Amino acid sequence: MDNHNHGSTEKAKRPRILISVDMEGVSGIVHPRETNPDGYDYGRARALMTAEANAAVAGVLDAEPGAEVWVADAHGSYRNLLPEEVDRRARLVRGKPRPLGMLGGIDERTDAVLFVGYHVRAGAGPGVLAHTMSDALLDVRVDGRSLGEIGLNAAMAGHLGVPVILLSGDDAACAEVRELVPGVRTVAVKEALGQFAAAGLHPEEARERLRRAAAEAVAGREEVRPFALSGPLTVEVDLAAAHTVDLAVLVPGVTRTGGPRSARTVAFTAPDFAQAYRVVLLLVQLGSIRPA
Predict the structure, then answer these.
(1) Among residues 16, 281, 28, 63, which one has the least CA distance to residue 168?
(2) What is the dihedral of CA 121, 103, 204, 219, to 10 degrees?
(3) pLDDT at residue 231, as a whole number
(4) Alpha carbons 85 and 2: distance in angstroms, whole number
(5) Is the peptide bond before 126 cis (omega within 30 degrees of 0)?
């Protein structure tokens, strides 16, 4: 009992905050040539992404100077943030594959998570660079509810008892998270005009707003409840390629559905969201395999 109390006291004195940083929702970014390593403007996008991550770190520490801040690079290869430019007060999680994907570094000790640079789910919007995990997945439905990266990551955090207290991205992404997490703070750094177009804030203005909102979110984190989904859960995934379906059904428990989209839809039942999340991550990886 004494050890438990000691741990609780340490957590209260030094909160642990995770900042998960994607790229598509960063101010100034609108096109795949900016978000992909072979794109002509990828270097600039990396710098913009790193600067917004740092703004969030600064906001967290404005509110809680003693906080333990983890930053998870959560875009593509998970090797986009410029390590030497990341705020030295934060710990950087980068590289893949890794446990819990975009939420690398999260566990039951984490007090709250911030989503920076996030985007709307596939098929929704208009939203800048809308997709769900990868182009291999057209939709993910959990007990019939369509969830994109925002919902899937929020639910995984919620499974661990961790609330999502802030999201930055375009206006569509902000609206998506507000439907899932009452009380979450949002920073719309751009207004989506289409898949590859937006009217955005100047990056410096976006960072200033993000820093202020991060501080407010951390200060008021007790007001936000985790987005938790109780199992067992039925998960349906619409896959873009027929050969990915052929690979997916090799996974124990994954089957083709009997519905109208059965040619491209697989389904499975998970006892809890942690398992559902891991199977979805596996399907993303299977979607990257091309026929020989």
Answers:
(1) 28
(2) 110
(3) 85
(4) 41
(5) yes
d(CA 156, CA 175): 19
Can you give 248-267 as a three-state secondary structure string?
Answer: HCCCCCCEECCCCCCCCEEE
Question: What pairing do the DSSP bridges indicate for beta strands 16-21 and 68-73?
Answer: parallel
pLDDT in tens, 76-105: 999 999 999 999 999 999 999 998 999 999
Tell me the pLDDT tens digit for each residue of 132-183: 999 999 999 999 999 999 999 999 999 999 999 999 999 999 999 999 999 9
Please tell me the distance from the alpha carbon of residue 221 to that of residue 162, in angstroms, as a whole number: 10
- CA atoms of 196 and 26, how far apart (whole Å): 13
Backbone angles phi, psi at 259, to 5 degrees: -85, -175
Please report, as a single letter, which amino acid is at residue 102. Answer: M
- How far is it, in rounded angstroms, from Cα 196 to Cα 29? 9
Instruction: Say how many Å lie between the first and final Cα of the chain, rounded.
Output: 58
122's tokens: 């596939």
Global model pTM greater than 0.85: yes
> How far, CA to CA in Å, does 239 sit from each of 83, 196, 265?
34, 22, 6
Q: What is the DSSP string of the chain?
A: -HHHHHHHHHHHHS-EEEEEE-STTSTT--SHHHHSTTSTTHHHHHHHHHHHHHHHHHHHHHH-TT-EEEEEE-STTT--S-GGGS-TTEEEE--SS-TTGGGTT--TT--EEEEEEE-PPTT-SS-TT--BSBTTEEEEEETTEE--HHHHHHHHHHHTT--EEEEEEEHHHHHHHHHHSTT-EEEEEEEEEETTEEEE--HHHHHHHHHHHHHHHHHTGGG------PSSEEEEEEES-HHHHHHHTTSTT-EE-SSTTTTTEEEEEESSHHHHHHHHHHHHHHHTPPP-
